[in-house]
Specification:
homodimer, about 475 residues, alpha+beta, six-stranded mixed beta sheet, 12 helices, 16 strands, about 35% helix, binds adenosine-5'-triphosphate, binds magnesium ion
């Protein structure tokens, strides 16, 4: 007899924690740290606060004699805006709940990262998480909570109010089974690579051995926070259109487009409906199934929508990329390509690529540093579309760019979007969305062509010298 | 002002379909096909019915002139046991709902694959899915349904009863945006590799160009269906123990272990509690937090639990692996290693590895065929722990096994478990769980050592010949 059952989202990720990046104690320690730090960076940036983030990993004293994996206390503190105390328990105790289900660029997007760190800590140590948060600097709300995994709901074990010292912020303290030794290289690289793209953040990291790594602020200029936007018409899908039509008060299709889509004005709308051969005065609610199909298909193929503007995005820009390349790679030659905004499935995105050659760049194979929405990606390089593009152009086709074997070549790729197409809930690597692949290819070709020019000038200069 | 919201599981996967293997039209067509075929195979095997599965992809007529991607009709039919008509709408219309949340090996495990195929079809074409199913052969229940994505619930558009022709089974028919041209190689490989490990199944596949591929049954012997089991104590986590203690009527710890765990009898339990230094007569409900920690930690480190038996598993076995190697690779030499059952995090698993060398095996690099729970894995090879083990041993360390460069070498890996640790909800590749990595290494070393023996005999025979 076949028996059926349904499970909650937290139960699903309890059973399948590999999907969220918690496969083994080393990886889990890495992922939990990443998720909490990214929550702090997001919160500070969207409230235009220069981030001060403090991260500490402490082995639990009585476990010091036992070999890894062991129990660690993980603490992440920020000076961000704090979390509304009414919302904080759900923010950390409920999977698929958060403030980032909006069309603007942020590191968070799934509504589950912080909750997964809490969940993993709970299932490996049975200890509750402690959250301190203040939105006014005067009162800190201290929550001790655990997750009712079968219900996907927080259980508040204790709640207190503590006198604040004048500054808002949030601190998360949890215990988890980790392997700090195995995770060490990746954790340190994460902080280093994160600091490179957040020069306005001050990050202090005290690792499991008590060693402190301090990444000071090198600029007081915050990037302009990304603004919420409307979907871009290119690639907008049926379900989106169906909901729009169901919910709309717009009296005709012309208004439906101009009121609800990114950069669609009266002229664009008129021209689009001419192209689609649909009467733009008809009412959305009267549209037949065939005509909705026709309209959505036409939105896919119409070439003259204005490209997205980047208000909903927060690209790194030349200054940050240059500063990072110079400080970390000290190359003899470098160049940057920043692609204009594009869109996939209605989501605006920008691709930025940096190239560094020679100087202190190590030989022995192309080194790729991947980022997405300012998050360093340190796992599963081979599966990432960015690597596949780099391998195709800078390795398989290196002759075309006059790149010698074992060249001292490093590339940095950054994809930023209102929705990064991660292939895993652990945000390890990017899926191959054709539009993103195309823009990565354009950007990588651009920097490789500049490198080729540099290399051929260099070799002709050397030829001149020899004569 | 920060506003929070929660979303349903189907809304989550609507927004993040890349996580489920639906990144682009080619991949989506592949994944939808895979999910439906695996549902049919699971259903037939668990009801001990020799599977007859019919798959057909048909381009929608009026789209034939437009270039790919286009709208396809995907139809998958089986002679399985059918689905209880009361449950069928939720089975296909609700994410995180199904019959496979049990501790036994099956291809399905997430409760979302079939639902995702329906969801992707709906968001790309707005058409409902049609399900025909009969559990008695007399009446077929025909459901036309779509998914209320925001609610994660099915909406039955139409329901009919049709006269059956005497045989039970299920047919799923849906429309979706696919790219059959781009997906062609992978789809055909999927059927070929699937047929290799299911010689008891008859599979008919009519591709998008109308070409029929017929994989006949080569044996009438079904594998013994996997039996539901209890968790194995090795690696059982806190949350599992907490729930067990909360729900139990067992009066003492000794009974708690013998009644609830796989192959833990009176002797094992007594010896375990001696090792853990815990009084096995104490009541589970009276156990302090510290003693639960002590018990769970001891369950991790105790080496003398009986290894799992394989009733909950369904390994391929030597016959199927040999038949597959011979028919597809025709090597000059082959060998198979089947590891004894092991467990990770309480889940029993078995690793099986086949090796084929020379003969018709192509040169030019090691070829790896990966399987998990009889599912062929055709994507993201580089990220799979199976590939990392094969690369480490058969490529980086090939000298140790006397393997020449560009050797004509192929390996087949099969990991079967009551829970395969997939890293993605699209079941593309395996996460690196240490226990599974260890068993893969043991199995690969075993076959490579046999190959080394064969190669050195071969070279000494040739040396004899030359004299
Ligand atoms: N340090 C923090 N400061 C302010 N708000 C926070 C902080 N940490 C978490 N939050 C809030 O809690 C919500 C849930 O966090 P969680 O990490 O679970 O999901 P997310 O960040 O929205 O998405 P993702 O799963 O991609 O990380 C966030 O959306 C944010 O509103
Ligand atoms: N062809 C079929 N015959 C019988 N039962 C089926 C069939 N297809 C689906 N089902 C039932 O519907 C349920 C839901 O299927 P679905 O593919 O969504 O999830 P699953 O197979 O349980 O897990 P997974 O997401 O890993 O595939 C299954 O558990 C099974 O009980
Ligand atoms: Mg987050
Ligand atoms: Mg399934």
């Amino acid at each position: 007899k076949t028996t059926f059952s349904g499970i909650s989202p937290s139960e699903f990720f309890y059973r399948n924690r590999d999907l969220a990046g918690f496969s083994n104690p080393a990886k889990a320690l890495y992922t939990a740290t990443r998720e909490l730090v990214e929550n702090s960076l997001d919160a500070c940036e969207s409230s235009e606060i220069l981030p001060n983030i403090y991260v500490r990993m402490t082995p639990v004293v009585d476990q010091l004699d036992s070999p890894e994996p062991r129990t660690y206390k993980l603490k992440v503190s920020d000076n961000g805006p704090g979390i509304d105390p009414v919302k904080a328990p759900d923010a950390f105790g409920r999977v698929f709940y958060g403030s980032k289900y909006k069309l603007r660029q942020a590191r968070g997007m799934f509504g589950m990262g912080g909750t997964m760190a809490v969940l993993y800590g709970q299932i490996t140590t049975s200890k509750p998480v402690v959250i301190y948060t203040s939105t006014d600097g005067k009162k800190f709300h201290k929550f001790t909570l655990r997750i009712d995994i079968q219900k996907n709901a927080p259980v508040i074990i204790n709640k207190e109010i503590i006198e604040g010292k004048g500054s808002t912020g949030t601190t998360v303290e949890l215990l988890l089974t980790g392997d700090a030794f195995r995770a060490s290289t990746k954790v340190h690289d994460y902080f280093l690579e994160s600091a490179l793209v957040t020069p306005y953040a001050e990050i202090t990291f005290v690792d499991a051995q008590g060693k402190m790594f301090y990444y000071p602020r090198s600029t007081n200029t915050l990037p302009k926070p990304s603004q919420e936007t409307q979907p871009h018409p290119h690639g907008f899908d049926f379900e989106g259109m169906r909901r729009l039509i169901e919910d709309t008060d717009d009296k005709n299709l012309h208004k439906l487009l101009t009121n609800n889509f990114h950069r669609v004005g009266a002229t664009t709308s008129t021209n689009f409906f001419k192209f689609a051969k649909i009467d733009h005065t008809s009412s959305p609610k009267d549209l037949s199934y065939e005509n909705i199909v026709k309209m959505v298909d036409a939105m896919h193929s119409y070439e003259s929508f204005l490209p997205p503007d980047s208000h909903c995005l927060s690209p790194l820009g030349k200054d940050i990329l240059n500063a990072g390349i110079m400080s970390e790679l000290s190359p003899e030659f470098s160049t940057i390509a920043i692609r204009p905004p594009s869109a996939y499935s209605g989501f605006p995105f920008i691709v930025e690529v940096g190239l560094a050659y020679g100087g202190n760049v190590g030989s022995g194979g192309v080194k790729l540093f991947r980022y997405a929405n300012r998050i360093p990606l340190l796992y599963d390089e081979g599966s990432d579309i960015a690597w596949q593009v780099v391998k195709d152009l800078a390795i398989d086709k290196k002759r075309a760019y006059k790149i010698p074997d074992n060249a001292p070549l490093a590339l940095i790729t950054h994809v930023c979007s209102t929705k990064v197409p991660f292939k895993t809930a652990g945000k390890e690597f990017l899926a191959d969305r054709p539009e993103i692949e195309r823009e990565l290819k354009n950007a990588v070709r651009e920097v490789l062509r500049k490198l080729r020019l540099h290399l051929s000038r260099q070799s002709s200069q050397e030829a001149v010298k020899r004569r």
